[in-house]
Amino acid sequence: MPAPDSADPFGTAALRDGIVAAWRSSPTRLREDAATEADYVRAGYRDRVLTELAQNAADAATRAGIAGEMRVWCDGDALHVANVGEPLDEAGLQALTALRASSKKQGVGQFGVGFTAVLSVAGEIEVRSRTGSVRFSESRTRDVLAEHDLPVPTSGIPALRLAWPTDTAPTDGTDTEVVLHLRPDIDAQGLLDRFRDEAADVLLELPALRTVVVDGHELTRTEAPLPSGLHDVRIGELRWWEYRGSSARWLVPVVRGRVRPVTADVLRAPTRSDEELSLPALVVADVAMQPDRRRMLPGGHLETAGEGYASFVAALPADQRLDLVPTPGFARSDADHRLREAVLDDLRSRPWLPAADGSADLLPSRAVAFPGLTDELAEVLADIVPGLISPALCTPRCAPALAAVDVQLIGPARLAELLSGHHREPHWWNSLYEALMPLVVDGVVAEELASLPVPLSDGRTVTGPRTTVLASDLPEVRDLALPWVRLVHPDAAHPLLVRLGAGTVSAADLLSDPALVAAVEDADLDDPTDDTPATLADVVLRLVTHVPASAVPRELGALPLPDAQGELTPADELLLPGAPLAEVLVDDAPFGTVASDVVEKYGADALRAVGVGWGFTVLRAELPTGPDHNLPDEDLWWETVDTDPDTLVAVRDLDLVDEDRWAQALALLASDPATAAALADRTGYTAWWLRNEAILDGQRLGRYRWADDTTFEGLLDPCTHPDADAFRSCLAGDGLDDLDLAQTLLDRLADAARHPTPAVIVAAHTTLARAFASGTVEADAVTLPDGVRAVSGAVVDAADALIPDRPWWAGVIPPDRLVTGAAGTASALADLLDLPVASAVVTAEPTRQGRTTTWDREPAAVAATVMTGAPLPKGRLVLHDRLTVRCSGALTGDHDVSWWVDASGTTHSTVEGLVPAVAAVSNAHAVAGSDGTRS
Prior knowledge:
Radius of gyration: 62 Å
Number of helices: 30
Distance between the termini: 176 Å
Number of strands: 40
Largest sheet: 13 strands, mixed
């Protein structure tokens, strides 16, 4: 073999001669070469200058076993692209000029074909290498065609078919340098800018290249293995995570530690092709491509590129894995469709979904997603829903991706169904409700959870919150059996249940439930095998401690409780051991003693709340309408009530007090604030009953007066009981409360052994007369004694008594015969006592003539009106020096008086009598109408 010519080390002259000879012998060959080159430039390798030269640089570095570097810059109209690595050799040059052949045993593409991309920007191209340099020239090729009389093909000059040697060496530090003398219409700076934009893609696609410098802007590719098996690839400020499979490399951009899925890209094999993809990651695949590497070869096995994609996804952080699942959509190309299906098949067939409990990754077909799942809910449902995936992947955003790989999505309704039949501690259910609470954002979700299981206080678990109720004030009550209501166990109670339709009740609501009252009333006290009474007692006695005593329905007094002998007895027929009430009741009172173990278990307060006695029990009923409270003589009390009270407050069992023990009973009533309050209501049932029925020292309580009340002093005895102040309303007042007090006053007015003062006598008569006038006392309802009390204090025969129906009669009736009340009561008093009024049985007239005048003419009369403040009477006035009236009838004799009114209505008076006359005459006229007599 001849030694290479140092001036032409690659034998370009021989190559030119052979090619020209071929063109001359076959003009068709010339046209084919020109057309092929033109097609590559205009179609196959358009806009791929940097990519093709970068591929050559990467191949050269690979063959040399070094990290590739490529530098791009402009010098005038010349674009320089230099690289390190294996330099140009003869075989390489032959490939450049042959168009159809490549000398590469490995690397990217077909060396000679891709190089045609340079013709898109230059017609004069130099390839400078440390082993020799060549030049491709469009102008010199044109000259050769002319020299050999060959026509210029219509498609253009085949500039890369003929090469000429040059002696220009590559730039220091590089092994090969391509110099493109740009066409006049090419913007050099714009070309550099485009190259700079493409540099990152070039470094990403061609790992053999480590550094690309474009116009002084350097980008370097670095990579580092990650514990997950991925590689962290960085190019400048950009970052990717890379997975290396058997047939492809997968890369996804990473920004601040999170993957940022791509929305559109192309198949890279390894450089960018025209096969559009919609996958969320970049793929650099080993796929057979057409010579221009823009399209896949028909029959290419693209599906193998999807193998291992699931491993790529599994290596990502758990909360980012679904970001790389292709979601449903239209494929951008046939390659996109095939690769998407391959990727999804790989994802469906391998475990990569993170489990909620932190165990091994799950296969999609065995995984379950619950939209909105939280860490708290996942923890609660760990052993309820097998295959539950991480909460981070259960957001609404993840739903399309989960559906794409056939993960089972369950909603609230399905969850409620899965929970059915499970029996857990109430605290567990409460944790479940707390975890579900944020998910119930509307009525739709609430309806789906309508069959959610709910634990009850009695140990049962029922379906559906709507059939249950929550106690608002029973946080510490546990294991409470309420057969008549579905009460949620306090440890499970949660606001979610209310949102889902559960009711809310208080202890008072539970106690007042008609079903409970009916159950108490229907309890069989005689069946020792029936545990219903014990269950009811346990429920009620535990509930009553949470409500005020006034809120406990009186019907619960029928609650059966064991007495000291073990017999079941209604609660309101039992007393607590040592109850002071037992000391004041009759010996045969229908009360037993509650069993001591019941007291120890539930406490005295709970038992008293349901009617078990200690002291007297107070009944309290809101808005009562009649005598239906099982109180003694209640119907009689209702007759005294003008309007129904808002609340009936009454002490029970007063009728069972022993008559000889009322002093103790009253002390007991006064000592208890609840009963003492009932005593203070004078118009209430308790005070009314005690006034009429309680016996203290042989007489009814209502016949005593309070010690400081002197209204009926001398007629009614003062109550000396030490607690009299507490039951003052139960004593006689200053009026008549009932008929018996009227009879007592009548009898005691006629009792000579009593010594009331004249003022008390008048007050008592006044009270009796007004009671008669108002209808409180009727004449035929009382028994009149034989004697009556005169104002003098004497008890006289009724036949001798007179009632002054006009004030002037008091001046002639002797005090021992005078029976009177306050002004205006004479007629009513006379009718009640069946006594005559004086004007009806006595006639009286002045015995002497006086001086007749008129009121307004007498200075003394006018002065009297000033002194009394009374109006000046009208009419005649007869003045006497001495005034004597002569009486006949029931009263006889002459009587000296200071003033008088005769039968004609004329006033007679002495000067001394004018003052009382003015006052009396004015008052007489005022009350004449009310008394029913004529003045």
